[in-house]
Amino acid sequence: MRAIWSGSITFGLVNVPVKAYGATEDHDISFHQVHDRDGGRIRYQRRCEVCGEEVDYKHIDKAYEEDGDTVVLDKEDFDALPEADNNEIEVVQFVPSDQIDPILLEKSYYLEPEGKTPKSYLLLRQTLEKTDRTAVVRFALRQKTRLGVLRVAGKVLVLQGMIWADELRAVDFKGTKSRAKISDKELELSAQLVESYSSDFTPGDFEDDYQIELRKLIDAKLAEGDTIDTEKTFGERPDSESDDAEVVDLMEALKASLEKKRSGKKKGA
């Protein structure tokens, strides 16, 4: 892995030198666009609408328009912002971990201790574990000030970006205010269905089925060309008019779901 940022975590007068690494990677199959008629590669050009010339990235600035007036900002303008050179992850709060709503969280980064001794890193990690607290932090990354959290994952400190409070949309869905009566029996059956699906979460048990099928399709086309038999490649598609689709009553749907889950367990056994 290659570090994408280096700096330090600061809380009080304590300084923790760290390097940041992206914690996730994208395994989606990437494509480029081609002309459907002759397979020619589609390429996009950045052209100036004034002179008509194609423009390299190094000659592109950013502009903001308001009430008919335009302000152009170049790289030097952005670099002049005080936060642009901020290489600190500043702890602003230590909060109970259950107060952090997952909907606020964004990209994750692993933090590696840097320097001659990792003692301050280890101290912060163990303190977060012992107090069951999450550190709320402010940091700058790629010319943008961000809010984030520091938490412990195994032996590593993880930095997760957060959206700002005003970026979270407020919702007012009519259906959530319904006064529909939920019977005790429906609640009981629903709880039984939840229990039948209950287990410990093991991320490695799950795969991206779409990407697996896409890879299978690509391999088949590489081997057989455009004349592939998709039914032979993927098997016969299940009938969309299944019995499950005919269940419309909530009570009956719960009963049918429980029965299906139980019969599935018997087959597995």
From TrEMBL:
Example GO biological process term?
DNA recombination
Classification via Pfam families: Ku
Which InterPro entries does the annotation name? DNA_bd_Ku70/Ku80, Prok_Ku, SPOC-like_C_dom_sf
Q: Name one GO molecular function term.
A: double-stranded DNA binding
Swiss-Prot/TrEMBL keywords:
DNA damage, DNA recombination, DNA repair, DNA-binding
Q: Which residues form the Ku domain?
A: 52-179
Q: Which Gene3D superfamilies match?
A: 2.40.290.10
SMART domains recorded: Ku78 (SM00559)
- Domain of life per record: Bacteria
Summarizing the function annotation, the protein's role is:
With LigD forms a non-homologous end joining (NHEJ) DNA repair enzyme, which repairs dsDNA breaks with reduced fidelity. Binds linear dsDNA with 5'- and 3'- overhangs but not closed circular dsDNA nor ssDNA. Recruits and stimulates the ligase activity of LigD.
Tell me which HAMAP family the record gives. Prokaryotic_Ku
Give the family, as the similarity comment puts it: Belongs to the prokaryotic Ku family.
Subunit structure as annotated in this protein's UniProt entry: Homodimer. Interacts with LigD.
Q: What is this protein called?
A: Non-homologous end joining protein Ku
Q: Can you name the source organism?
A: Corynebacterium mycetoides
